[in-house]
Amino acid sequence: MHVLIVHCHPEPHSFNAALKDVAVETLQRLGHTVEVSDLYAEGFEPAEGPQHYAQRSDPRTFSALTEQRYNSEIATLPADVQREIARLERADLVVFQFPLWWHAQPAMLKGWMDRVFVYGGLYTGKRRYDCGHFRGRRAICSVTTGGPAATFGHNGRGGDIELLLWPMNYSLYYMGYDVLPPFLAHGIQGGGPIYQAQDTFKAQLETYKADWAQRLENLEEDTPIPFTGWSDWDERGVLKPGVEGYDYFIRARR
Amino acid sequence: MHVLIVHCHPEPHSFNAALKDVAVETLQRLGHTVEVSDLYAEGFEPAEGPQHYAQRSDPRTFSALTEQRYNSEIATLPADVQREIARLERADLVVFQFPLWWHAQPAMLKGWMDRVFVYGGLYTGKRRYDCGHFRGRRAICSVTTGGPAATFGHNGRGGDIELLLWPMNYSLYYMGYDVLPPFLAHGIQGGGPIYQAQDTFKAQLETYKADWAQRLENLEEDTPIPFTGWSDWDERGVLKPGVEGYDYFIRARR
Prior knowledge:
The structure is a homodimer of 254-residue chains. Chain A contains 8 helices and 5 strands; from the N terminus they run βαβααβαβααβαα.
């Protein structure tokens, strides 16, 4: 198996970076090949916009979808986007490593999605969801949060983590991926332990690293998050009667 | 009333820009003062990271929270962040105008949140949610989507729009805002009408503009999205027995 790790954290000595290293070491030890997109280290530009397109289908008015499709067709996508797409095309599994900032992925990773998941090249109106470009491949998010685990439960103050990650996971499903349930490391704050004593915190970090390695060793046993698909929708794009809704996986856990 | 419009679209002639103009004109006509943060036009840098902090609490290891707090305290926050905070401090109402990209706000706007909502200065562990810095003020998202309205219903293929906007709206509530239900303009694609004939599409755009103006004229009648607050949570940050959960507003609509 070939694995791409999309790593998004500005600090090379962060716990996110440590989890990324655990993934690289574990996957290589299992005999897989691993490639890393280190978005901050590589200086990825997150803002989609006209500055990335020397060739324009419409030179007057910029539309991201129009220029993504046009530049896909004539093979003039931005060099960094071409590089990321080539990495995705090689990967049987994509691991996203990032901290939860403002109830979502950091802007850097959001911009990677805005720019790399190009219309025309990687999806069209018909080529998405369970007919998506990357169908048959898997993706998983490994996420750190800044609060105690209980606050990210379905009744927690921090917000139900399943609900917070839904837009990101649904985007991955949109691209065709089988999306595995996320790996979560709670209570991580770069400035030091907030909710625990120093010793407990250090032990907790080691436990998380071991848990992540174990999770990666047993990934074959994971069941992807269930999503509805084309056979569940009518011609208006609405669920047929009797079919479970999008939030099935959330409700199923309660 | 003084209003800040945080506008996020790369194209000055986009429909998002037209909706932003409608908001400016309508609010001024009503006698309010209006200020616009035009994130693309002003070249806002969305990626939070060490490059923004000349002064460092910890010069060795970068933590966003640590440096946000430290630079808040010694009044050395980045100039663009100081400008945006000053704009927020002046505003009784904040309007966010953006297209839905990958089931969320564009990276540019996500980065505005990552960088401008600074720890220490604008929130702390105790100063958030219904004790947040901007309590008593209002915020509203005006969002364009690229698909038909039906596909963004609770049973729609595009994903329940209430669920997709939850992380953004919950972040605004985290800062203390009363968050009004979003204004939605569906089926907008910059490249031209996809789902409708040209004539129908143009008429639809005019209808959306009129609807947005009318919504802004009657904003006083809007009921904010209900969120749980400090009195609903126990000391672990979990809802007390019998209290409705975070997804109350979603479930209430079904």
